Amino acid sequence: MRSAPRRPHPAPIHTGGRAAANPTARAPVEHARTARAKLLTATAVVLAAALLLTVGTSYVRAITAPGYTSFADKTSSWLRDHGAGPLVDQVETWYYTRHQPSREAADINQFQHGQPAQTAAIALPNLPVPTGSHTPPRWVAGRTRHGRPTVYISAFEPDPTHPSIVTGVAIIDSTATTTHYMTGTQQPRSPVGQSPAKVPTTEAASLVAVFNSGFRFDDITGGVYAFGHEYKPLIVGQATATIDDHGRLDVGQWGRDVTNTAHLVAARQNLALIVDHAAALPQQSTSSAAWGGTHLQYQYTWRSGLGVDHNGNIVYVIGNHLDLATLATALADAGAVRAMQLDMHPGMSTFTIFTPTVSSPHRLNPTKLLPWTPGPATRYLTTDRRDFFYTTLAG
């Protein structure tokens, strides 16, 4: 009986003339690579967590810092401080240029509210007649000094093509008031103890009006001088609001209309004049960056402006859905011979008038120039991060 044939053993597999390596020989190498990958991953996670913690802490500090401002402005300011300014500009331009004001006429009753100023101590301009009315808006007297009004307020339509726009205007008698400039906790940052960053309690009882200042200093080239210190260099040719040692405010071009003298107490710059020689300057065809660039000029948003009339009285204008040209026109209509733009966007423009209450003449009642202005009427009575102006009764 023949035995079954033996099966041949499979031939060994050779690679390059050598037998295949033992699989277990790679284990230490693979283990080292895995350990290194885990270490790098853990390091990346720790670094990312630290970065997020740092960024988060910075952002929380920004939005919880003392002083009123809108959540949107706190966020945009924080983003600008961390290099995202161009992105913020693009987003704001996209939004505000696509929300044009309505062409429907505003309610004419809001132009005739309050008690009229029967006998004004200063010359008041005739404001444009609103759409649907035959009479110009009425001027209302604010707080008085020795029976003489120190401030006059009104509202009017600055743009006939968009009659829905309503701007508030205030004219302050410069001979009956004293104007002050106050730095904030962040704009410009003052040494500890130098600025209270609010209306001093010793002057609160004599308040006439409080209003906002200009752009953030990181967004402009202009400077500021206050408390005997130049926080940022003043630039020749820039629109500048100055205050002398008599508390008299002036607005003009630095180096031409206003300059550094022994009587200078404060100076605040903000781009170029938007009203000069009683004429509104920025037109929609202008491409110059003198007023912040075309992307800012075309935005329909909250804006404010400050100027002086031919007698040196203060002219302030505020309104929503304004582009820069309309703001300039409004200031010129209100009698300004020279004017500059102040801050813009919701929550950054505000004007409050203070009048004694009927029940207690020593207690002041704050009232917004435009009732629908965002933010509290008591802003700047507590510590604020932004600089501002306020006027008091002359001594």
Descriptive account of the structure:
The chain has 395 residues and is α+β, with helices and mostly antiparallel strands. It has two domains: 25-95, no CATH class; 103-393, no CATH class. It is built from five helices and 22 strands. β17 and β18 (314-322) form a beta hairpin. Residues 9-21 have low confidence and may be disordered.
Key descriptive features of the protein:
single chain; 395 residues; alpha+beta; 2 domains; eight-stranded antiparallel β-sheet; five-stranded antiparallel β-sheet; transmembrane helix; Phosphodiester glycosidase domain-containing protein
- The main sheet orders its strands as 3-6-7-18-17-19-15-16
Order of H and E elements: EEHHHEEEEEEEEEEEEEEHEEHEEEE
Query: How many helices does DSSP assign?
Result: 5
Strand content: 25-35%
The largest β sheet comes out as: 8 strands, antiparallel
Structural class: alpha+beta
Uncertain residue ranges: 9-21
Mean residue pLDDT: 82
User: Tell me, what's the shape?
Assistant: globular
Count of discrete structural domains: 2
Q: State the end-to-end CA separation.
A: 138 Å
Radius of gyration based on Cα positions: 32 Å
Number of strands: 22
How much helicity do the residues have? 10-25%
Give a quick summary of the entry.
19% of the residues lie in helices and 26% in strands. It is of the alpha+beta class and 395 residues long.
Layout of secondary structure:
Blueprint: E1 14-15, E2 18-19, H1 27-64, H2 71-81, H3 85-96, E3 140-141, E4 144-145, E5 148-149, E6 151-156, E7 167-172, E8 177-182, E9 207-212, E10 224-226, E11 229-232, E12 239-244, E13 249-253, E14 264-269, E15 275-276, E16 279-280, H4 294-297, E17 301-308, E18 314-322, H5 324-333, E19 338-344, E20 351-356, E21 364-368, E22 388-393
Antiparallel strand pairs: 1-2, 3-6, 4-5, 6-7, 7-18, 8-22, 9-20, 9-22, 10-11, 10-14, 12-13, 12-14, 15-16, 15-19, 17-18, 17-19, 20-21
